[in-house]
Amino acid sequence: MVLRVVLADDERPARAFLASLLAQTEDVLLVGEATNGAEAVELIERAEPDLALLDLQMPEVDGLEAVRLLDKRYLPLVAFVTAYDEYAVRAFDLNAVDYLLKPVSRARLAETLRRARERLASDELRSEHGARLDKAVGEADVSTLERLPVRKRDEIVLVPVASIVAIESEGELLHITTEKKERHTVTRALRDLEARLPPDRFLRLSRSALVSIDAIETVSPMPGGTYLVTLKTGQKLAVSRQRSKDLREKLLRF
User: Do 9 and 131 reside in the same domain of the chain?
Assistant: First the structure.
């Protein structure tokens, strides 16, 4: 069978080298190249490849974010490419088909392609890969975000973390409000996104709400030792009893 592959890497020499190796490999068709994660998402959903080779360290939208942003109907087998050993270990832990350490050798690429073919030979294995990869990527501990990639129809909007005022969860959805009162919705667990935000700039108010400390304008005491905060956007959010102690320690002590 012909293995249909896409690759994404922001470094042109590395991308060109890997593309050259794929072109010299029998029964492999390179169906597209992307220079960043946002392009990779669009390319994968359009080309529907069997395998995506994704660089882990692309700016703005890296390999992990690309997987998160993909419509899961189009999630292919994924192998991560990285220049650093510590990221390679993480990629392996994420249940990727494989990881490739730069510079990629012909023999190592051949092993990755062999593993991909084995997974493709079993629909059950491929389905298991997709489910486990999606779950693992969602829980991955990665670097602090400066801008949050958000799907808007067929586009990816990069929302500056500094502009975020509040994040409220509703089931599996997170509703994000910015200081300009723009609203965005992403599918992610609140605890996972919280782990990627600067801890000194955000405060957890309850199991379902996280706000920017700088966006809090007033704090109103409520019965039972809890509080109600009013944000610069006019939003009013209740602080749970459990989180009220954190609020007092961070904002009300002087």
Answer: yes
